[in-house]
C-alpha cells in the first residue's frame, strides 16, 4: 500500500492521473474519476458523469441511462484498486474479474449524476479477493454486487494470451 499511499493528496484522495498509475485503464473506459478514501479493507470512489459519454447516446434512446454492465465495471475497477493496495508487488500482477454474484440494480443512473462506489473487502489472499460493492447516486443505493477477483502473475497471464 506504500506506493499507492504516495499518490494520495493531503485529503487522502487520489486523482484520475494517480488512478491510471495503479490500474491499467484510461479514457474512454476509466469509470473512476477520484478515490475519496482508501484503507486496507475499504475504498470509496466517485465517477463524475458529464452526460456526454458515448454510451448515453445509444442506450435507451430518448431516455439515456448508464448501462448496468458499466455500473458493475465501475465497481470492479474500484475493487481492483482496493485489491492492488493490499499486494506489495502489485505492478507484477493482473487483477481480473472472476465471478459476479447477487448483482442487483435498484434505480437508473442518469446523465450528469455522480456515482459513488463503496467497496468492502471480505477476504483476500495471493490468489484472489472477495468484495461487496455498492453504487450510490447521492444517498440512494442504485446497484450492488458480490465481486470475486482473480490475482494472477502479469507476465505469465499476458504471455499465455498473446498472439
Q: Mind explaining what this structure looks like?
A:
- With 163 residues, the protein is of the alpha+beta class.
- It has 5 helices and 6 strands, in the order ααββααββββα.
- Strands 1-2-4-5-6-3 form a 6-stranded antiparallel sheet.
- A hairpin with a 2-residue loop joins strand 5 and strand 6.
How big a fraction of the residues is strand? 35-45%
Query: CA-to-CA gap between the ends?
Result: 33 Å
Question: Low-confidence runs (pLDDT<50, min 5 residues)?
Answer: none
Q: Give helix and strand order, one letter per element, not per position.
A: HHEEHHEEEEH
- Structural class estimated from helices and strands: alpha+beta
Q: Count the helices. How many?
A: 5
- Mean pLDDT over the residues: 95
Radius of gyration: 16 Å
What profile does the largest beta sheet have? 6 strands, antiparallel
User: If strands are numbered along the chain, what order do they take across the biggest sheet?
Assistant: 1-2-4-5-6-3
Principal-axis shape: globular
Structure summary, number of beta strands: 6
